[in-house]
Design goal:
The protein is α+β, with helices and mostly antiparallel strands. It has 3 helices and 5 strands. The chain has one domain: 6-pyruvoyl tetrahydropterin synthase/QueD (Tetrahydropterin Synthase, Chain A), CATH 3.30.479. Strand 4 and strand 5 form a beta hairpin. Bound molecules: nickel (II) ion (NI). The site of nickel (II) ion has 4 residues, from strand 2.
């Protein structure tokens, strides 16, 4: 059977502040500009997951959408929606940039077993988006 690619989009809203204790106040301001504002700001994030695999001979599908939706909503949307990203354990020691958020979503999808995840795409604004393609080294103790 031919290989197929399926992409599905999910949305959540969250706030963040780009700041690191590694840099001084002035350096944070220089690196992050208004995104370093102490009060933070929000985004309507879009996450697009692409899975790939053989088309199932019986169902004609590459992945059951219900299974993909269930995983994404439970593991990604409910985890990040209406949160301040900076308060989450995964951003305790790294800046809550969308580059890092993209990796976190890819890390979460490492435990998705119904199909092979080949791309994780995160849109921060209509002008900014980030892609993770490939595989991550296993991190003990991380979901
Ligand atoms: Ni931002």
């Amino acid at each position: 059977m031919p290989r197929a690619y399926l992409s599905r989009r999910y949305r959540f809203s969250a706030s963040h502040r780009l700041h690191t204790d590694v840099l001084s106040a002035e350096e944070n301001q220089r690196a992050f500009g208004k995104c370093n504002n102490p009060h933070g700001h929000g985004h309507n994030y879009v996450v697009e997951i692409t899975v790939a695999g053989q088309i199932d001979a019986a169902t004609g599908m590459v992945c059951d959408l219900g299974v993909l939706d269930g995983f994404a909503n439970e593991q990604v949307v409910s985890r990040f929606d209406h949160t301040n990203l900076n308060t989450l354990p995964c951003f305790a020691e790294q800046v809550s940039t969308t580059e890092n958020l993209n990796i976190e979503v890819a890390r979460i999808f490492q435990s998705f077993t119904a199909a092979q995840v080949v791309r994780v795409h995160v849109e921060e604004t209509s002008n900014n988006s980030f892609d993770f393609i490939g595989s991550l080294p296993a991190t003990p103790g991380r979901p």
